[in-house]
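PROTEIN–LIGAND DATA SHEET

This sheet pairs a single protein chain with one bound small molecule, S-adenosylmethionine, given as SMILES. Inputs appear in the order they were entered. The predicted three-dimensional arrangement of chain and ligand is reported afterwards as a token string under its own label.
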Amino acid sequence: MRQAALLANFFERELKTHRPKSVAVLGCAGRNGFDRIDPAVTQRVVGIDINPDFIAVARERFQRQLPGLELINADLQEGDLNVEPIDLVFAALLFEYVDADVVLASVQRLLRPRGILTTVVQLPQVDVPDVTPSPFASLQSLASCLRLVSPEFLCERAIANGFISGESFVAATMTKSFQVQHWRWLGTGIVTAVCCDAPHSFSKPFVDEIRLLAGLGVAGNAHCGVTVQH
Ligand SMILES: C[S@@+](CC[C@H](N)C(=O)[O-])C[C@H]1O[C@@H](n2cnc3c(N)ncnc32)[C@H](O)[C@@H]1O
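PREDICTION REPORTED AS:
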């Protein structure tokens, strides 16, 4: 199976598994399986790519077929994207070209809390060029920027950036293999109430604010201290 078809199959699998109302494809290039989207299920489709030519190709090919298509020509490393939160973010063969931490921070801003990120990275292969010959000349010119990223490295960076790791598997074409990894973004925490009480009583009253002391707990609270057990 050819690389483009395999990547489109991964994308279709995500769409069928999660049935997202909204999806973003990072580094979408001109195709990336947009033809596998069912617009009755996935009503918003956001494609982002740094290359304006790819965005133009994707617009030409899919605008009529996907009424909810938003195509954005942007550098995912700039961090200034302003997009309504998305259910599923799909990033295939992108982390090979970008700073993982910077783009994971962009993904956090794109995803709704509990949203899913699916990544595909290429695995090292002996005697095979890392970039598959492509009819898109600009994809070919990307070869000089490509730097393979190990799934272990991506896992470490994703966890450090607050993602929870899910299913991960390897799939291959005749010449190349890829690691597909799933992540869930839990979102930033929201404090709904804070409580504090100096005496060790049954329940603590709500207060307007608390002061956290590193290694100790809440200032002025009965349970504040190095050796307090509960
Ligand atoms: C190897 S291609 C992968 C294309 C497509 N995702 C696929 O799986 O066939 C990498 C894509 O990422 C895009 N890209 C690279 N760096 C980027 C960045 N900083 N911001 C947005 N897109 C970027 C490139 O323009 C290109 O379309």
